[in-house]
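note to self: the first set is below, dont mix up w the second
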Amino acid sequence: MIEVEQEKISTNIAEEFPPELQEPRWSVISFSESEASGLTYAEAEQKMKELEAQKVSGLCIVTDEVAARISKSKAETRA
């Protein structure tokens, strides 16, 4: 049931914002790192499913810009 709802939400988002979602500007991040970047939204969704199957936690799709900010912030915190 949850998968069906997620697919429905993704379809609705794609219908409302197709140009942005088709651009390779999306990243998949986890609690620990940026898992992938430079993806279309559909590719990011697929990557997220793959990582979920590997039991990676804290997954989220964000823009590459946001992923870069998070990575920079984490690096500054560790320094």
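second set (the one i keep forgetting abt)
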Amino acid sequence: MRHSAEMKAEIDNRFHLKPVAKLVPLSQIPLNRMVRIEHLEGPREDCDRLLDLGFTPGEEVVITHHAPLGEPVVVRVRGALLALRKREAAWIWVNLV
């Protein structure tokens, strides 16, 4: 059964769609805010290292500490606490949970 353009427009209801989430780099997240990793964007070797450490898409993380000058930041991922430089945290794009 073929639908005409009029039928398609009538059925096209976007109320069921989720709002588009705003992605931000992990380096801009405040302390103790739970976020979900969406993707990594940076130098390939460094992103591969972050993936090996557990910073994988879909994983929930939280920044637990900042050093006095703001760097490094301590991130809880998969139950482990890991220190990252601000530039490394900027490669991890997250969505608020």
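remember for set 2: The domain at 22-96 is CATH 2.30.30.90 (SH3 type barrels.).
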